[in-house]
Amino acid sequence: MVNWLQIIIFGLVVGVASGVFNLPFLWSMGIIAGMGLLVIANMLYKVYASTNMKQVKKYIENHKKDPFMKFILTVENGTKEEELAAMEEVIAHYKQPAMKNTFEMNRTILLEDYDRAHYFAEQLKNTQHKLYGKALIAAVQGNEAQLVEYDIKREWMKYAIEAQLAFAKKDQQRFEQASVKAVHAAKGIQRFMLIHSFKKLKLEHGWN
């Protein structure tokens, strides 16, 4: 998601300035490399670490041609059918097995096809993601007893699972408490998605 065009243009500007002011070649390369690193660091901060959701949304909107970013915007405002269509675009676009299996799992959960959701969760190589997927499948079915089988370490994951379980059991107070904790524990794009996923769940049950 790095804006390489900006870096190239900046490199050309530095190149012209180097010729005009007779800057040493290593200085010019250092400036270009430094700018590139700053752009990448800024991108990583917005995606993974920011708690400023206006900043995160602006980044997502600026990259909405990417199927994954388009899906995130659909989580905010789209219908179930639009979310499913956006998921299918992500699955078709990305070649990475982890991305494909994650979205296949989430798609089949949304379709309430839990056997296939388990299959895709099993394909995930990252242990925490696999456990989270299995716990999520149990939670949306209201199977609280099964959740003790999954040792989930990440705080946002634990509270997101609890919120999903509370939603399945129609326990609004528990849902509110867990969803707030999940959002506070998450950052970047993950926080953005949790905020809007939970908003949709509240609307589904008619909770204020």
Walk me through the structure:
The protein has 208 residues and is mostly helical. 78% of the residues lie in helices and 0% in strands. The protein has 11 helices and no strands. The mean pLDDT is 87.
Topology:
Elements: H1 4-21, H2 25-49, H3 53-62, H4 67-77, H5 80-93, H6 97-110, H7 114-123, H8 127-140, H9 155-168, H10 172-185, H11 188-205
Helix pairs in contact: 1-2, 3-11, 4-5, 4-11, 5-6, 6-7, 6-8, 7-8, 8-9, 9-10, 10-11
List descriptors:
208 residues, mainly alpha, 78% helix
Largest sheet: none
**Ends: how far apart?**
36 Å
Number of strands: 0
The dominant shape is: globular
Order of helices and strands: HHHHHHHHHHH
Instruction: Indicate the mean pLDDT.
Output: 87
